[in-house]
Amino acid sequence: MKLTKRMVLLLCGITLAMVFGCGGGGGGSAASGEKIKIVYIPKDTVNPYFYAIDVGFKEAIDELGQENFEYLYTGPATAGPTDQIEYIEAAVQNKTNAIFVSANHDSALNRTLDDAREAGSKIFIMNQDIPGSETHRDAAIMPASFDNVGPLLIELMGQQLDYEGDFAILSATTDAPDQNTWIQGIKDALAGDSKYAGMNLIDVVYGDDQPEKSTTEMEALLTKYPNIKGVIAPTAAGIPACAKVLQTRRLTGQVKLTGLGLPSTMQEFVKDGTCESFALWNPPYEGYLAVYLVDAIVNQGYVPAPGSSFQAGKLGTVSVESDGQILTLKDLMVYDASNIDEYAPLF
Ligand code: RAM
To answer: For residue 24, is pLDDT > 70?
Structure first.
């Protein structure tokens, strides 16, 4: 009988289940003395945003004993829809208990994720979800409730613009599930509240989470729309690039800026007034929570089913929502001149 790739993976899955003592989906208790294998695949390995999540993984691994874990942070240099596939496949080959992926597309990884789960790895979407493809993952680790992102960003832009004027969005990649959810959230909030009636969204451009492309796109916005009054950049790679353009062109105060960013890269721009306020959550918490989740799965037989909960060290009891999402925090944090110095050294 000729073995198909699927059958081979299935057999591997059964073997793994025997080794790890777990049922379908795998990732159950590691044999005594075995290290728990965790791989985190960010959107790309160049964007410093994801290093902040990596910090959290390492912190929890330190707490739970480095000798108990084999942890790898790896991924593609570019954030293309299918660029992460080979890294997921390699993690499966290495019999990884839990693979965390910050997916670059909402469905392009489905087949690979299915194969990985059949082979025995737990699959978690990290820092976001894959809308419409939720059945292809075990759970999603969310940095905050995404319902709150669009409304908060439009409000921060509104406050800076006195609720009046043309603004644009500078996003990351065109396919990014998280970015597209937030852009829709911004559009819905804009249309849904008469408070924002004087604000016009004139364009959405994409800097691909790359500083150079973000800079070029920001320059192009300013050239194309001489009346532009503000930019929302919900990308940690994009917002400092936008700020730098405004600072260099001496447009501080004339073109307003908000979005999502790391306090460490935005500190100088908050200090000089280029960006009055922006938002984020706590990326290290996500990696930290992830390790406690895998530890509960492997060592306590925990199944991250909707409605269930587990203990995540300093984060306390964490529950799984009805849609399989695990919220690290509910609300976002707003950073401005009053608190930027406190958070900039952290992430
Ligand atoms: C970017 C990435 C990431 C997002 C952060 C805020 O660097 O697109 O997915 O969560 O910004």
So the answer is: no
